[in-house]
Amino acid sequence: MLTKEEKANALEYANGLVDYVNKSPTPYHAIKTTSSKLVEAGFVQLSERENWNKQEKVRKGGKYFVTRNDSSIVAFTVGGEYKEGNGLAIVGGHTDSPCLRLKPKSLIKKHGFIQIGVEQYGGMIAHTWFDRDLSVAGKVYILDSTNGQLIPKLVKIDKPLLRIPTLAIHLNREANQKFEFDKETKLLPIAGQVSLDKNASTKHDERKSCADDPDLKLTSEQFESVQSVITRHSQSLVELIADELSVSISQIEDFELVLFDHQKSVIGGLNDEFVFSPRLDNLTTCFTATNALIEASKEANENQDIIRIMALFDHEEIGSVSFTGADSSFLLDIIQRLGKISFDSSSNMVDNFHQVVSNSFLLSSDQAHGVHPNYSEFYETNHSPHVNLGPVIKINANQRYATNSSGIVLIKRIAEKVKVPLQLFVVKNGSPCGSTIGPMLSAKLGMRTLDLGNPQLSMHSIRETGGSYDVIQLNNLFKGFYLHYNEVDQCLQRL
């Protein structure tokens, strides 16, 4: 039973997560939200295009972050007592969630309706997207006509725009027995009606272009289908985006948009014990890891002798194979650069990469499966984690998770220091097992790794359910890991 003060403190963190999720409908927004929090806490943004060895750009006691494609981020603090070759305490997670994404040519008109063509991103529970208030968000490239620069801007339309209606039970009497549908033809949102669309009869201006060159053998329509967003998407949708960004339609070069649940993330339950929310997988990690890194840097950084790192990657839900994913060079590049920096003016520049990696540890954090009271037969009896009973260590004999016994010993000792309860999860024999960024980063870096995460229900649904009292527990575990890793690791002997 929590005291009144403990409950208030826990709910403060849970409400912080709710606010974070509501600001972050896409990985781009999650990185913007994260970057803003880091800047406010005194972190300095670096660029991968810069030479970090020049003019002591990275120093002891400093706090920094680097983004890639505005959808992945690596943030780190250098301890004031850091010595070259010392280890790294890393918390890793991902910024993306399963969703629907606009196709490059999304405009569809059928039976008087304006529809939006979408493709499925990741392993979503598709039927949960029916009968929901949906909107769009993402990255838009704007042409600055004064200097010819192409500027990326984030957009989030805070209005219910779209809906994927189900078929009435009168027309499908088996709707409650099975709900099967073609994801190409039935998972199409409606956005409006042609008869009421102000742009229904609008004709686009004739444009002079290289499509007029007979040698190219391109029709004007073929050329425009690539060049103009108006010909590929609903003009009314493009106008909404332009209005949101205070630009003209002609300035919009292209965009990358996804659908998101317009209903806000909230605290719920009889005793405020739940977070009802989209994207808990894996914005819970993004929020708590960011908070923990900031809190640890404020509490003790000058006397620390390690580098603390938070790494959040895009594209985990589709395998991580991209230049911003965990299977990219992003984290490896950062570690290699840090290993080559001379933090002491008296030392020679030496590549300390292998020594650093050997002294380091990665916590791979992704949401875990809490036991579902209506489907308990799907869980292994002795490994059925409960929501609001603390973070879950995830174990798999086939290395779908990277956890091993030395990692469990280390994280248990840290959890004891910060008084965070831990749970264990193993999938049932014969059941499929998901995976995380843990195994691939462990193999890529040659680094000790442990997989864990907060328990939740309805993973990959458009609305997930997590524990409001678990948020502070994961935050405190990460903070404890940043503060006590090196001390505990020194006690862990290796064969």
Automatic annotation (TrEMBL):
What's the EC number here? 3.4.11.21
Give the GO cellular component terms, alphabetically: fungal-type vacuole
InterPro entries named in the record:
Peptidase_M18, Peptidase_M18_dom2
Keywords, sorted A to Z:
Aminopeptidase, Hydrolase, Metal-binding, Metalloprotease, Protease, Zinc
Which co-factor is required?
Answer: Zn(2+)
Q: Which BP terms in the Gene Ontology apply to this protein?
A: proteolysis
- Zinc found in the keyword field: yes
**Which segments cross the bilayer?**
none
Q: Its catalytic activity?
A: Release of an N-terminal aspartate or glutamate from a peptide, with a preference for aspartate
Enumerate the GO terms in the molecular function aspect: metalloaminopeptidase activity; zinc ion binding
Q: Which domain of life is it from?
A: Eukaryota
**Cross-referenced NCBIfam families, in alphabetical order?**
PRK02813.1
Name of this chain's protein: aspartyl aminopeptidase
Query: Which organism does this record belong to?
Result: Hyphopichia burtonii NRRL Y-1933
